[in-house]
């Protein structure tokens, strides 16, 4: 970028900031200092810069301040901002106001969405969100179309199939993961989540996921048939589960597949409880199946969840707790207290630890939240232990 372009770019940015703050002071870019890059240019380069700046001045964008001495070859002391909108036009740019207004028009169908207004407000304040500015409005509009589609879906959808249906591009939705994350996260400044967590929360998956259950009793399916929970486990579609029959002592949901298989084997012949695989972040259809089962259990059956001791693990726990609360059941933590393991994990950063605490509180685990250890530990690294 030439010195002339970089100087006008800085003047444009300073003008945007002044407009935002209401500051009316004169803004200038000075070249008087002997250390200025202006004096490192050759005579021909300075002449070309002068011509460029004079054109911007003729467009009404800036005012030029020349040195008092030097005759026809006198140097340029400074350029002064005269009209922000004309400067933006001269540079072939849009002002922030114009860019945000255009983004607002693109996102107008979702104007009642609070997160959309948060995005627009950030852009008005010259802030980007994870390096995304007003020029990403069309991508956010596509992400919102995905959310609209999933809001009326009765079952989980395969990512690439839906992507072809909506955009005639099998990989379009995957390219919108960051946008979907921002639109569905707890807060606009929340840490980025793994794609599987983002997609899982809205009911998208790379491939269809069965509802896996191990233990005793039978699943009541939508066609009126009872499906016995055979050893070591049974898998059915989420939407097929409409209830449960049996007399378990407890129910435990498990985040990770490896641990679920270990638990299914450990139940053995003395199966007293039910173990359910959440498939990572549980989808809405998983939540409906889970709620149907909880509604069919006696009220004295304890309901537990066990997952990773990290940000994602506690977010998943909060999600499962939300489904349980919808049928007035309390979710209890199982093996989620790192202080009881007698082993150390990877240290958690302060923002990661805060996120874990916040999610534990959302799950209703207030006591555990007050003493969560600032360590990260995957469920697969823990010793398998089932409720009695």
Written overview of the protein:
This protein has 388 residues and is an alpha/beta fold. The protein folds into 3 domains: 3-90; 96-205, no CATH class; 211-381, Dna Topoisomerase Vi A Subunit, Chain: A, domain 2, CATH 3.40.1360. It is 43% helix and 15% strand. It has helices at residues 3-21, 43-58, 84-90, 96-106, 114-124, 137-151, 159-167, 172-175, 177-184, 195-202, 257-267, 284-296, 311-326, 350-362, 366-369, and strands at 28-30, 62-66, 76-81, 157-158, 204-205, 211-215, 218-221, 226-228, 234-236, 241-245, 250-254, 273-277, 302-306, 332-333, 346-347, 375-376. The strands form 5 sheets. The protein has a 6-stranded mixed beta sheet with strand order 9-6-12-11-13-14, with helices on both faces. A 3-stranded antiparallel beta sheet has the order 1-3-2, covered by helices on one side. It has a 3-stranded antiparallel beta sheet with strand order 8-7-10. α12 packs across α13. The longest helix has 19 residues, at 3-21. The model has no long low-confidence stretch (mean pLDDT 93).
């Amino acid at each position: 970028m030439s010195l002339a372009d970089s100087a006008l770019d800085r003047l444009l940015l300073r003008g945007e900031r002044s407009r935002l703050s209401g500051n009316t002071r004169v803004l200038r870019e000075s070249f008087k200092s002997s250390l200025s890059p202006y004096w490192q240019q050759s005579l021909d380069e300075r002449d070309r810069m002068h011509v460029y700046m004079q054109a911007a001045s003729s467009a009404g964008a800036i005012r030029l301040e020349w040195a008092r001495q030097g005759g026809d070859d006198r140097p340029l002391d400074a350029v002064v901002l005269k009209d922000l909108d004309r400067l933006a036009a001269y540079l072939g740019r849009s002002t922030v106001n114009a860019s945000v207004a255009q983004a607002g028009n693109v996102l107008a169908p979702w104007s009642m969405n609070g997160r959309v207004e948060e995005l627009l407000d950030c852009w008005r304040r010259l802030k980007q969100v994870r390096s995304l500015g007003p020029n990403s409005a069309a991508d956010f509009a596509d992400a919102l179309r995905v959310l609209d589609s999933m809001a009326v879906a009765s079952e989980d959808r395969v990512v690439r199939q839906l992507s072809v249906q909506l955009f005639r591009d099998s990989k379009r939705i995957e390219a919108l993961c960051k946008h979907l994350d921002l639109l569905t996260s707890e807060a606009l400044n929340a840490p980025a989540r793994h794609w599987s967590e983002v997609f899982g929360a809205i009911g998208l998956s790379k491939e269809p996921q069965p509802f896996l259950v191990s233990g005793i009793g039978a699943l009541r399916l939508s066609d009126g048939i009872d499906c016995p929970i055979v050893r070591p486990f049974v898998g059915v579609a989420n939407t097929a589960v409409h209830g449960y029959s049996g007399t378990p002592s407890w129910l435990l949901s498990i985040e990770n597949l490896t641990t679920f298989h270990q638990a299914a084997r450990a139940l053995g012949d003395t199966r007293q409880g039910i173990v359910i695989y959440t498939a990572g972040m549980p989808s809405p259809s998983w939540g409906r199946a889970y709620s149907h089962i909880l509604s069919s259990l006696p009220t004295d059956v304890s309901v537990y969840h066990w997952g990773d001791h990290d940000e994602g693990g506690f977010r998943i726990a909060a999600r499962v707790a939300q489904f349980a609360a919808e049928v007035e059941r309390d979710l209890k933590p199982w093996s989620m207290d790192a202080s009881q393991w007698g082993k150390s994990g990877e240290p958690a950063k302060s923002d990661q630890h805060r996120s874990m605490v916040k999610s534990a509180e959302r799950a209703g685990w207030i006591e555990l939240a007050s003493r969560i250890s600032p360590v990260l530990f995957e469920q697969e690294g823990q010793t398998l232990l089932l409720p009695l």
